[in-house]
Amino acid sequence: MDATATETSETAFRTLGGLRFSKGHGTGNDFVLVADPEGAQPIDAAQAAALCDRHRGIGADGLIRAVPSRFLPEGRELL
Asked: β-strands 29-35, 21-26: how paired?
């Protein structure tokens, strides 16, 4: 792995800021699933792309960030 790839990978993981994540798949696609129970770690498009990069990040077709909803406050326990 070259220096640029290492830096990109480290930046991608730093984006998560200690949040738990897992990978899931279905219907031929895979996703990085990030639980953000405090809603404190926004992830922008560039960060999501870095995390989903198959060579330098976690590798996935997309990212799903689960945050609490003001419309469904009881869902917080599920995160």
From this structure: antiparallel
Tokens describing residue 4: 């640029």
The pLDDT of residue 75 is: 60
The count of structural domains within the chain is 1
- Indicate which CATH number applies to the domain containing 28: 3.10.310.10
E strand or H helix at 64: strand 62-66
11 residue type, one letter: T
Domain that holds residue 12: 3-78
User: Which residues, at least 6 apart from 65, have a Cβ–Cβ distance to it below 8 Å?
Assistant: 34, 36, 43
pLDDT digits (tens, 9 = 90+) for 43-57: 999 999 999 999 988
Predicted pLDDT of residue 3: 45
Residue 24, Cβ density class (10 Å: 0-12 exposed, 13-18 middle, ≥19 buried): exposed
